[in-house]
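Much of what follows relies on a compact textual record of a protein's fold. Here is one such record, which you should read through line by line:
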Amino acid sequence: WLIRTGNDEQALRSLMAFGRFFRLSLSKGASMVSVHNEIKHAELYLDIQKIRFCENFNFSVRNFLQLSDLENNYVPKLILQPLIENAINHGIENKTRDGFLSVTVERSGDAIVFTVFDNGDGIEPDRLRELNAQLAQSDYLPQDKNAFGYGIFNVNLRIKSVFGPNYGLNLSSEYGKHTRSTITVPLNPNPKLDVM
């Protein structure tokens, strides 16, 4: 559609972002990636979505980790992209303007914390309690892959299966104002799984 509208520069930017996005997605078959590569993958996904939605939203990616933490700690690949996709589809997409999404990565004691925030519609309190109760379970995954929230439950399950029940995903929200998805993983400079 960008080429048809004469926006060749934007089309080229989009194709370049897609190429880098898919290269990182494949990760040479590795199930774990460095924190650095996970953040880079999220940035590429956001670039692609920004092109798709034009001026309907802005984003920021803030990284407060030291270089050694970025390169020497690993996470299951593709843990941020489903959260960003949820934030866009269930929060930002309904806004006609002034949508905002941020990704923050920081260290908290012996853990790395990833936060995805959007200023969308938020989650109703009863639904939020239900989602967090399901996320607290170490093995919960909806049977239907098309079910609401399948992606976040998949991310949570993969984190818990690698790092244990004390780690994973938690949601907070103020209905009508915002949603915050928080992933916590341990510092893990010596992963035992295949990595890229």
